[in-house]
Design goal:
This protein has one domain: tt1808, chain A (Alpha-Beta Complex), CATH 3.90.1570. The chain has four helices and 15 strands. Strands 4-7-10-11-12-13 form a six-stranded mixed sheet, with helices on both faces. The chain has a four-stranded mixed sheet with strand order 6-5-9-8, with helices on one face. A hairpin with a 4-residue loop joins strand 11 and strand 12. The model has no long low-confidence stretch (mean pLDDT about 85).
Length: about 190
């Protein structure tokens, strides 16, 4: 990942991204700073597919909201645009979703970290998500086979670390992930 400097006269804004090339890179803004990262690897995609697949099945039975897999822009503020790997928003948040992405804070965000994105997924993004109103944020680490959990209700800079068993979402209690099964899909 490369952090590029601010424009000389001001921080980056969402509209500054309109002229970026469609080159397979991920372009995100964190507090007006542009971050560019490459497309994720195979292991990342397998784990993400499993997380989304379980959401898809769950939401067919319990229509409590929608889950959207990346790429999907999430506009938190004029200077904060992120592309989480997976978002969940409640039915009452549907008006915030359009062809341009999601405006505001989804209820639940999941990031599957890659070596190039791990440090800012665990640090700056965690703080940013909670600041703008994300209720629950999971940081899935396939290499270490663990999930770091931040919730708005219990937010501290140190997340809850889950390394075994079944993890249950506080936002969508029907969404329960068995860590052994989740990480078995990886390569």
């Amino acid at each position: 990942m490369v952090a590029l400097p601010f424009p000389i006269d001001r921080p980056w804004k969402i509209e500054d991204l309109a002229d970026m090339p469609d080159d397979g890179q991920r372009y995100e803004l964190l507090q007006g700073e542009l971050f560019v990262s490459p497309a994720p690897g195979g292991n990342h995609q397998l784990v993400l597919g499993e997380l989304y697949g379980q959401f898809f099945v769950l939401l067919k039975k319990h229509a409590v909201g929608r889950a959207v897999v990346a790429p999907c822009d999430v506009r938190l503020s004029p200077n904060d645009l992120v592309q989480p790997d997976l978002i969940f928003f409640r039915n009452e948040q549907t008006q915030q979703f359009s062809n341009k992405g999601f405006n505001g804070a989804p209820a639940f965000v999941i990031e599957v970290i890659s070596p190039s994105t791990g440090s800012y997924d665990r640090g700056r993004k965690a703080a940013l998500y909670i600041q703008w109103g994300v209720e629950e944020y999971w940081i899935v680490d396939p290499d270490k086979k663990r999930i770091l959990v931040h919730t708005a209700a219990e937010y501290t800079s140190m997340p809850k670390i889950v390394t075994s068993g079944i993890i249950v979402s506080s936002v969508v209690p029907e969404y329960a992930i068995n860590l052994v099964e989740l990480f078995a899909v990886g390569i």
